[in-house]
Amino acid sequence: MATDHIRYDVLARDALRGVLRRVLADAAEHGLPGEHHFFITFLSTAEGVKLSPRLLAQYPEEMTVILQHQFWDLVVTEDRFEVGLSFGGIPERLVVPFNAIKSFFDPSVQFGLQFEPADAAAEAPTANLPAVAAPSGLPVAAPAAETRDEPAKPSEGAEVVRLDRFRKK
């Protein structure tokens, strides 16, 4: 077989990251439409990821965040996204380079992407920079009105979910 000098695999991966970038940029500008929400799994110690020491201790390898009702200050740049989330009632600011993302899933439409991170996780967690502390008094978005017959349980903030428990064995 001939050598792939064009590197179609890299081109395809970058194009799919462009889809993710555009979806997040639209959400940052206009909010999440309809029932859309996102599960984003990323490597905790990848280069450029910024998590607080507390979150890094809880999720030393990878972390999944859900962008649905309670997130704020979503900022999307060419190479990363930044978002404010609350974990156990404590506001946190996360910075996640697109190269660190392993998977993206929107369960409202059953759309998902899986990535091989471009750069492997950093060898030493010391390469990880501390997260920027969220300013006090940040507004927390109220949950959207539920259309279910059952009342929704009050949220304690963002929930980190391991996707492994949803995978078929």
UniProtKB/TrEMBL annotation:
Region of interest called Disordered, as start-end residue ranges on this chain: 140-169
Top-level taxon of origin: Bacteria
Protein name listed in UniProt: Stringent starvation protein B
Classification via InterPro entries: SspB, SspB-like_sf
Lineage of source species: Bacteria, Pseudomonadati, Pseudomonadota, Alphaproteobacteria, Hyphomicrobiales
Organism field: Bradyrhizobium sediminis
Composition skew (Basic and acidic residues), residue ranges: 159-169
Gene3D superfamilies listed in its UniProt record: SspB-like
Family annotation (SUPFAM superfamilies): SspB-like (SSF101738)
